[in-house]
Amino acid sequence: MSVLWGVSFDATPLSGVVVEFLKTARRPAARGLAVHLDLGYDIKADKGAFFRPYRDEASLLPAWVTLDRVEGVDEIRGYDRAFVERVLTEVVQAGDETLRPEIDRIAFELAGRIEATWERLGVTMVMVENGTLPENIAYTEALYRAIARYGARHRLGRFVFWRDHDLMWQSEPGIAKYGRFPYPGVPAPRNSPHIHYFALHEQAKARTLEWVPGLRNLDVLPNAFTIAPARIDERNAGFRRDHGIPDGVPLLARITRIIPQKRVDRDLHLLTLLPGVWLFVAGDVAEAPAEHARLTELATRLGVRDRVVFGGWLTPYDTALPGRYSVRDLLAHASVVSFLTSYDYESYGNPVSEAIASGTPYITSAYELYDVVYGGQGFRAPVLDIRARDLPDAAFAREVAELITDEGKRAEVVRVNSELGRARFGTRVVDDLVDRLYPPPMGAGTRLSVVLPVYNEAATLREVLQTLYDQRDGDAPLDKSRYEIVLVDNNSTDDTVALAHAFAAARPDLALHVIHEPEQGVSCARRAGMDFAAARSRNRPDTDPGARFYLVSADADCHVDAHWLSELFAAMESSKAAIGVCDYYYDPAHFAGRPRLWDAIQRTLRCRAVTFSLFGGFPDGKGFAVERDAYERAGGIEIFYQLQDGKFVNHLSDDWDFGIKVACGGDAITYVPRSRVEINPRRVDHAIDEVITGRAYGSDGIIVMRDIRPSAPAVAADLSEAEAKQAWEFSIKDFTPKNTILPVLLTPALLEDDAVIAFFGADLAARLARRIAEIRDEMRVVDFTPIHAYKTPSYRLYFEFADELFACLRRHVGEDIGYPPPLPPCLAEVPAERFTEFVRYYCEDRESGEAHNYFGNGGVF
């Protein structure tokens, strides 16, 4: 069994650090990893637990967590609590380097013990929580050494998830507890092929990069929470009774460590201004007994002791352990969550997020990073300005009272905070990231990963998934271990994701993974899915090194034939091509009674069948396969951006442009006519006016995808003669440059192939070859991969050879292909001797977009 080893530098059984570890580790645990957690008792000195055996700490944690620690640490000479405290004061705070040799010796021995423990367990993933905070720099150095050696020995790649909740500038900087910038005594994060670093917010990331400018693989990952109202239910109904809190009284909830820095005294002073309100303080009263005694005496002196409950530890927010109450149970009964902490103590402020997630209003002090994490993001709450006044006053108390009693204001605050919380730190944020960076394992027999981008496809998704599930190989079902589905949700707001999970649960014999791509656009979603599958495919166990792996694109609004995947796989295996392109067709029954429209569509498809058989064609997102290594050689799916109405939008021809990159790299593309995809006709049905005018995908060079989900049944009317002529002309104008010229423009050697020469004729093939060489030299074009770069030469060659190209199509496809559509009026008026010159200017068309509009801008049928 694979093992996740977690280490917390916090040295407490429950804290914000441990809770976030549990939330993150939950995902790999669900995929079968055994989770072992070292609480850091043998790391952090100030909690008084150094070398202390675990007692009942496991009862506070989920059953899927095994408490563990590195073996033999207590046997290392000179390594103990006193040594760690001495290093902190002398090296980190005072800058005295006398202890460096001893630190290095102990770090070397610690690293060996850590490695030995990981070897014994078979660790494959490590999560380090707060390891950069210099409480114990010997242990931090040991971790880096162990990670480097263990990762290299087992070829684990980036197997370490290293998250810093607190850093030097966030943890009591006023007293320089960890030194001054640039923190010479602190082991700075270092670039490693095995570590991915995470900061909690953008400011922490920026400060980290200011400290370590060349640090790579550093991302922002906020603490994550399940956004759902906390409710009183059968399990927690007795919470108030069990803690002596009367029913019906307003309850202020404080979830905290009971230490001076948390400033629970502010809540006691606030209570004096809120008659009838009770305070529940959830935290370990034994951690700092003197502080608990001071707070108890203060509550008595202020006359509120009878309304204060020190309730001890509660289990983490997202846990439900038998016989124990959780933070979420408290919040189900709370009126307001309080977080009146010290100015320079908190980084993220988990209790605020827990309040937001549970649908409970909160109040807070204006601690240093409050605006960075919450206030500046639009979250709403009364904020105590502790720079202006240390304790709550009557004005602040009135704000709190209003939040308790005004139901309308309370509901609006909860609504706004919940919506923002779901977007910024809902659990999906961390789940998606863990799935991307540490994806679930892939079976050894899996050879194909079908990537399915989706956006609000609830109406048709079941049927599409069923066609993928029902794939066949000959007369038998296709072996489900041979392939998988990666569904990429692109910010759906309907039931798409729930339907996908339900489909997967009902059919466990086929692996279906759901990941999320936050950047809107099918190109972005396709890239995310293919990158996800490619990375996972390299970690398959017991895999034949010679076996090729394929990434397959599918479309959520198209149906694939029963042998779609097996035919595609067989063709790719036999041809060893880099890309396999499917055949596409429409159901003729859908166009019954529309003969003119059907004729225009069929002529385009007949042309494509001929040219694809010759040149291999180019991939279309509706159905193609790419061999993984070729995908990675080409740099993967590249997202191009263009300006539309003053904003950057991603370009939608990622599939074609990817094929161009592959062809330019010298890899082969093969056409697989027996692998067939039925095209959904809704674009033709619901955007027919744009289709027949060549604007279905935008205009002026801006290629966009209109949402054409039908809001009403399509009107099944045929085209008029004039409309049919217009539709055909735009279709053939779009088709011819892309499918008869572009292949030989990218790969001139094709013009020496016998079949290609037979198509063009020897004379035309030779003249095309000469003209392509001239244009390449004239334009100094070597690389046609940038978007649009191939269009100018393709368009130029079209105009120069249009009559002869159409003669080829008539000869090989049918006389009904006809003749070239009329030239643009501006070219029709150009003298013959200057035609080629002005074609060049027209096709470059740098400002007007006319050339793009003439050629239909990206496809018709």
UniProtKB/TrEMBL annotation:
Its EC number is 2.4.-.-. Gene3D superfamilies: Glycogen Phosphorylase B, Spore Coat Polysaccharide Biosynthesis Protein SpsA, Chain A. Residues 240-374 form the Glycosyl transferase family domain. Keywords: Glycosyltransferase, Transferase. Residues 449-613 form the Glycosyltransferase 2-like domain. One of its GO terms (molecular function) is glycosyltransferase activity. It is an enzyme of class 2 (transferase). SUPFAM superfamilies: Nucleotide-diphospho-sugar transferases, UDP-Glycosyltransferase/glycogen phosphorylase. Pfam families: Glycos_transf_1, Glycos_transf_2. This is Glycosyltransferase.
